[in-house]
Amino acid sequence: MRKISLFFMVLLILNTVPVAFATDVTYQFGEESINTTWTTVTFDEAFSNTPLVFAEIQTENGSHAVQVDLRNVTMTSFQIRLEEDRGRNRGWLDGWHYYEDVNWFAIDPTEYTANDGVEVGSVNYKQLLRSNWGSVIFSETFSDTPLVLALIQTENGTDTVRADIRNLTSTGFEFRLEEDRGRSSTVNSWDGWHTTETVGYIAIDPALDLSPWNILFNTGETTSSWATVCFESDCSDVFVDTPSVFVEIQSENESDTVQIDIKNVSVSGFDVRLEELAVAGWDAVHGTEEFSWFAFGEIIASEPEPEPVSLDVLVVETSSSGVSYIISILENAGHTVTSMTSFEIESAGSLSTDDYDLVVYPGGEDAAYDGMNTALQTIFQDYVYQGGGFIGICGGAIAGSEQLHAYTSYYDYTTDMLGIGLGVTADYDISWLDYVGASIIADFELETDHAILGGAYTTGDTLAITYAGGPVFTVDDTVTVIASYTIDIVSDTGYSSNGMPAIVETSYGDGTVILFAPHPEFNASTHFLLENAALYVSE
């Protein structure tokens, strides 16, 4: 016997409660493969009171319409079978049916607490005329129209019968014992009268959320055509294994006798339809009816939301107008940003990885000259070697390179830079400075599915980024090229930049270095490159 606080109302039973309660609820559940022969199911442990049993066929192995039939529900067991509707004179269906998988649960109706958002109960009802409807008035207060399951618990009459629901509201519903009288067959039709049976029901407040307890439920509409119901709107897999599904028609929009049918229950959903008994004279085409569904099993654990990463970032103050953009982007991403000039860094004598997760070196002509400063070279080499991250942009990318190769038609020389961009030489022609203050937005081709792209782009795509006179990189085979130019930068030397590296990743010691020739900070659509690069180099 399983007992659980009403907070759960059972991990594998229907949705019940929005808040925790002390009351225990006794329940049991199982799965049977049965046919039309009565099968006795014995509970693992005896209930203290006679439980209510709810059951649903999960498969569609036989082609004939069939329903679940219960009898002899006691504190220790119940009997269950599949029942085909043969009609009063046994002229409709043959009464034999393939084995179907039926899932069931049993619950003690006395063990629930008012104001939990659930009502479990039963009513004894005698169907004197087919047109008569009984009423259930809820004692529970629901926030809106609840979802209801109902199933006849007894077998007092021999005629085939099912529970029928209509006019469901937040305060109650109408029901009847429905025998199929058929449309045109008077020979085999049932008379519509039925002796007293016990109807068990469970009503669930739609506002409840029991997904943390592996329970999902919802409402839908269906017709006589098979349709797929997904547990989630994107039809993704929700359950680890095939769950138990229970369905119930909630309306009476058409007078033809009909039952609801499911098949193909899977971890993502199930198929459902309304089924009329064609051999009883119905046309097998039924209008739309509302239904409720309940699914329980083990829901796939979702990946926990990652904790927001807050980095300590040092931004070097240069003459570039991008400095303020960079600081704003990083602060909006939740990082703590400190700014210092290269002179202040040189005066401090060192940078500590305990103080800063990464350094961002923005553009500017002064940034390129900083790269030649031997004191700064030592400071940055020590910092990155110990695991500090480095992002250089435009002039800051020149500074972060291993070497600068500068040339015009009048001179050509190579000089050492900060040296942390191993394997990277920043090629630069002074005529490219014409783009400073007259930037363009150019297309850059992506050479790899790099992490800083965030999965939004793939190899071969182009990405428009602001260009304002940055370098062209020459790299060795230790360097990862993230993006390359698709344009030729006009220069006196006729240097062809098309196809040359524009964004690269390299390393120095334990540190990671990313160098941008273009400016990701100047356009909102490319801010993500800087945001992702900051996380990447600080890992």
Question: What is this entry, summarized?
Answer:
The longest helix has 12 residues, at 374-385. By secondary structure, the chain is mainly beta.
- For the residues shown, what is the average pLDDT? 91
Rg from alpha-carbon coordinates: 36 Å
Q: What structural category arises from helix and sheet content?
A: mainly beta
Shape, principal axes of CA atoms: elongated
Please, how many domains?
A: 2
Helix content range of the residues, please? under 10%
The main sheet orders its strands as: 21-20-22-23-32-31-30-27-28
Task: Classify the beta-strand content into a percent band.
Answer: 35-45%
Report the major sheet: 9 strands, mixed
Low-confidence stretches: 1-23
| Strand count | 32
Distance between the termini: 51 Å
The helix tally amounts to 6
Folded structure, characterized:
The protein has 539 residues and is mainly beta. It is built from six helices and 32 strands. The protein has helices at residues 322-332, 342-348, 365-370, 374-385, 395-400, 527-537; strands at residues 2-5, 24-34, 39-42, 52-57, 67-71, 77-83, 100-107, 118-127, 134-137, 147-152, 162-166, 172-178, 194-204, 215-222, 227-230, 244-249, 259-263, 269-275, 289-296, 312-317, 336-341, 358-361, 389-393, 401-407, 412-416, 421-429, 440-446, 462-467, 472-475, 480-485, 501-508, 511-516. A nine-stranded mixed beta sheet has the order 21-20-22-23-32-31-30-27-28, sandwiched between helices. Strand 20, helix 1 (322-332) and strand 21 form a beta-alpha-beta unit.
